[in-house]
């Protein structure tokens, strides 16, 4: 049996409780729409927010690792460009050495060819000395520290081998400007000065090409991992805006109806006054 009372308005209490729930739901929905997140902070879902924050840290770390790998890529590309120029100079030196090995040339011609050989070896030295990137030159000063780069967000490193190009390439042919016919003939053999310098250069071109390919592959893997992590975060905490938009309209209508219901319930005690007329 309903209680007719001007002190306790059951209808108004029910209407107010329903209205308050609608306002709370509306506040949550408006927050999701304004932020774009289902879980914007720890008050929404502490466990999900903690997971999202951890993954965000991993994304930032992998992004930073890719930036460092970009620096390593630059160093490797500069080194490869240097070695390519060294290879070109050695090819020219090989052609000049063939002329120096010819016993029919005149003394004047030999002097000219020796001068040409000397210029080419200076070029080789310059290409090696100029292979600098961000203060590092792994052909001139191949220290282990300069050859190590962080490859992922976990801090794991990739180490590539430097090469003492001045010792193993330039020094091998540095005396070319003084080569006699016999010296030139010996230099052209597979184990001779020119042959050895060319072999060493091509070997390092192959090595540094492989290092560069590894860095490219690692960068691409890190990018794919970052994309996957961001997708995972989105599935965990992003709001379904289409769903929330529909819910917002529904809640706004419920809020209006709740206001009307509460107004009607608040007027109920007024009807009791008619009993006393």
Automatic annotation (TrEMBL):
Q: By its UniProt entry, which InterPro entries does this protein fall under?
A: Flagellin, Flagellin_C, Flagellin_N
Keyword field contains Chloroplast: no
An example Pfam family from this entry, by short name, is Flagellin_N
Q: Where in the cell is it found?
A: Secreted; Bacterial flagellum
Nucleotide-binding among the record's keywords? no
Domain Flagellin N-terminal residues, every copy: 8-141
What UniProt keywords apply to this chain's record, in alphabetical order?
Bacterial flagellum, Cell projection, Cilium, Flagellum, Secreted
* Source superkingdom: Bacteria
Q: Which residues form the Flagellin C-terminal domain?
A: 192-276
**UniProt main location, coarse:** secreted
Signal peptide limits? none
The similarity comment for this entry is: Belongs to the bacterial flagellin family.
The record describes the protein's role as:
Flagellin is the subunit protein which polymerizes to form the filaments of bacterial flagella.
The name under which this protein is listed is: Flagellin
Q: Which organism is it from?
A: Paeniroseomonas aquatica
């Amino acid at each position: 049996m309903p209680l007719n009372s001007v002190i306790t308005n059951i209808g108004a209490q029910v209407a107010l409780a329903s209205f308050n729930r609608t306002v709370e739901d509306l506040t949550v929905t408006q927050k999701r729409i304004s932020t774009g997140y289902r879980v914007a902070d720890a008050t929404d879902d502490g466990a999900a927010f903690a997971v999202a924050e951890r993954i965000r840290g991993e994304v930032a770390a992998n992004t930073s690792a890719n930036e460092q790998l970009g620096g390593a890529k630059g160093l490797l590309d500069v080194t490869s460009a240097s070695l390519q120029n060294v290879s070109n100079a050695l090819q020219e030196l090989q052609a000049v050495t063939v002329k120096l090995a010819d016993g029919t040339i005149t003394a004047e011609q030999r002097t000219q060819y020796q001068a040409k050989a000397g210029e080419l070896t200076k070029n080789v030295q310059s290409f090696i000395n100029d292979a600098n990137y961000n203060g590092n030159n792994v052909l001139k000063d191949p220290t282990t520290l300069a050859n190590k780069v962080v490859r992922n967000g976990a801090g794991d490193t990739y180490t590539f081998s430097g090469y003492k190009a001045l010792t193993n390439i330039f020094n091998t042919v540095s005396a070319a400007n003084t080569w006699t016919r016999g010296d030139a003939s010996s230099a052209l053999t597979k184990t001779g000065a020119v042959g050895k310098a060319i072999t060493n250069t091509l070997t390092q071109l192959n090595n540094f090409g492989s290092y560069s390919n590894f860095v490219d592959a690692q960068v691409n893997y890190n990018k794919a991992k970052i994309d996957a992590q961001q997708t995972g975060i989105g599935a965990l905490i992003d709001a379904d805006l289409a769903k929330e938009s529909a819910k917002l309209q529904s809640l706004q209508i419920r809020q209006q109806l709740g206001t009307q219901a509460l107004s009607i319930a608040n007027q109920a005690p007024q009807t009791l006054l008619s009993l006393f007329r």
